[in-house]
Amino acid sequence: MSVSDHSARTPLEIGDAIELEVTGIAHGGVSVARHDGRVVFVSDAIPGERVLARVTDAKKKSFARAATVEVLSASPDRREHVWAEAGLDRDPEDRAGGAEFGHIDLDRQRSLKAEVLTDAMSRFGGVELAVEEGDDLADALGDLVEAAPGDDESNGLGYRTRVRLHVDPETGVVGPYAARSRRVIPVESLPLANDGINMIAPLGEPMPGAATVDLVAPAADDPRMLVGMPGEKTPAGAGDSVQELVDDRGFLLRAGGFWQVHREAPAVLFDAVRDAVSGLIEDGRFDPAAGNLDLYGGAGLLAAAMAEAAGPGLKVSTVEADAGATDDAAENLSELVGALALTARVDRHLAELLKASAPVRDRLRRGTVVLDPPRSGAGGGVTAQLAELAPANIVYVACDPVALARDTKSLRESGYELTELRAFDIFPHTHHFETLAVFTRE
Ligand SMILES: C[S@@+](CC[C@H](N)C(=O)[O-])C[C@H]1O[C@@H](n2cnc3c(N)ncnc32)[C@H](O)[C@@H]1O
């Protein structure tokens, strides 16, 4: 490993050690620095720090990637990493992935997430998030990303009720992948996971022949271990049903089906969607008898939240690609006589709705669409279909701020106004967070 000279404009190579002034945060859990005019995305650092970093990727002309190996001038927000196996005293290649903010004070994690959101909304969404005059920017940003109940008390640990581990095909060792790699890292504990998962996690027990291990610790059921074999799409036991609880409402779902990973996340998002719909009702903008939709609906969590605000007379269709999840949604929404659970890809279903008769299209125009797409967002195709269907309101739950910002731009260009934005820190010690955006048709 050679130490490169700042003034020499030599190309960077993998393994080079470089000194970096870390100036900002980027989407994806890495900080931003510059070296000889080139942007360097550096992991395990904090904006404001000076670090010695090792170049890990130098293929691109415009930017390189590096990992911190030593902190030369530490941020006051630097903490001992919450996961020993992800800390700086390990070689970057041997650090466990999945806790890339674990070395940062929890409040600062939230203000970094808020910076990522405001930057994404400004650059890709054309929306400047206002900070009240006189507010300290860091405080205002920190307040934008709301903590989940209990996280401040537990330092954001022990929250995950879902964890996927991987099995090294050569040694059978079970563990998380290292960051940005498929290298399995053996670990002694899973500090972000709850007790149920830590109790059954086969850490230190090789599982030769297996490919993945999904650990599931439902709120109202025994923890499960689902072992996936190479080439198999669905791990064994994934179709087994488990019981979840959101406040005191029960949800039944497949053990391997989608469910929010933070113990409090289903309730946080349920409440946020219910409150958004209540706001629309107060503004006289919500029609319970219209063609309301819960797109990417999973097991029906957010349709149930709409119903909590709108009452049992709500008409709503959930649209979900996974047939098992649709069956669960039908069961979970069975008390709502106006609920329909459909198995379909969202784009195909919207294409069908666009061909519907004038009265059906009119009902859809009066409706509210809740959508909660995967990380890639709804995308240009689906936002264009939504713009053509023109529902009165869109309540968008997003796990990727850049995808949300791009979809925001399309929706605003199609005549929707962004009227509310909230963000939730339901993935402490990682760079992930969830955002809720409400759009109304002008
Ligand atoms: C982020 S989850 C949201 C689930 C649900 N709203 C919840 O909160 O539990 C996204 C869901 O979208 C489904 N999905 C992904 N792509 C889809 C598509 N193109 N059409 C329909 N559903 C899709 C996934 O199976 C998954 O259940």
From TrEMBL:
Catalytic site positions: 399 (nucleophile)
Keyword Glycoprotein: no
Positions of the TRAM domain: 11-70
Keywords per UniProt: Methyltransferase, S-adenosyl-L-methionine, Transferase
GO terms, molecular function: rRNA (uridine-C5-)-methyltransferase activity
Binding sites annotated in the UniProt record for S-adenosyl-L-methionine: 260, 296, 320, 372
GO terms, biological process: rRNA base methylation
Ubl conjugation listed as a keyword: no
Family from the record: Belongs to the class I-like SAM-binding methyltransferase superfamily. RNA M5U methyltransferase family.
Alphabetized PANTHER family for the sequence: RNA M5U METHYLTRANSFERASE (PTHR11061), TRNA (URACIL(54)-C(5))-METHYLTRANSFERASE (PTHR11061:SF30)
Protein name per its UniProtKB record: Class I SAM-dependent RNA methyltransferase
Source organism: Leucobacter edaphi
